[in-house]
Amino acid sequence: MSSYIIYFAIIILIPLWAQWKVKAAFSTYSKVENYNRISGAEAARKILDHHGLYNVHVEMGSGFLSDHYDPRAKVVRLSPDVYHGCSLASAAIASHEVGHAIQDKEAYSFLRIRHALVPVANIGSNFSWIFILIGIFAHLSGMLLLGILFMAAAVVFQIVTLPVEFNASNRAMNEVISLGIIRNEEERNTKKVLNAAALTYVAAAAVAVLELLRLVMIYTGMSRSED
């Protein structure tokens, strides 16, 4: 029983720790203005124009750290603090989202794979636990295996997301430096914001893999007991 308590504590604490790191980094560096006092919206527009992405719009969204790139609408949506803010954090987050727009333009392979996996991952996330719970409580290994397969699709999506996010952050750093959005001495703190944001994706992938492995072990034990 104690091992289960430790396990569930770990999978709960890892995402909470990652979210805390992001919020702490943003809170710290949202108070540090970038040297050129360029807002997140201005930084995004500058990078987009540099890459000829005039058809991609920059809009203010709602919510805290709700920033994202919408590939269907061709819109970079920035949360109010990032959109208006002239901080290192605003420049980092805005440029990261533009990194996804550049990936979209260049048909970045992992981004294309992630887009292709979206419907499969959605099905896996929505239905996997139905089959898993039925399989466990009814002791039906076949039903459990079906749930594991659905969950595996969602886990693959989480894993494929990692190179997409890291690549977008690398692009962001290159852009903000080469276009003079930040100065070289601001690079280290800008990276701290991007690295903290990346932790949320790493944490999500790690938790997903751990949970999948746990279920595979349950399935293996159940299959042996049925033999």
From TrEMBL:
Keywords (A to Z) from UniProt: Membrane, Transmembrane, Transmembrane helix
Locate the coiled-coil region(s) and give their ranges.
Answer: none
Chain ranges passing through the membrane: 6-22, 116-138, 144-164, 193-219
Which superkingdom heads the taxonomic lineage of this protein's source?
Bacteria
Pfam families, per the entry? Zn_peptidase_2
- List, alphabetically, the InterPro entries matched: Zn_peptidase_2 (IPR007395)
> In its UniProt entry, what is this protein called?
Zn-dependent protease
> What species was this sequence derived from?
Pseudoneobacillus rhizosphaerae
Q: Write the lineage as a comma-separated list.
A: Bacteria, Bacillati, Bacillota, Bacilli, Bacillales
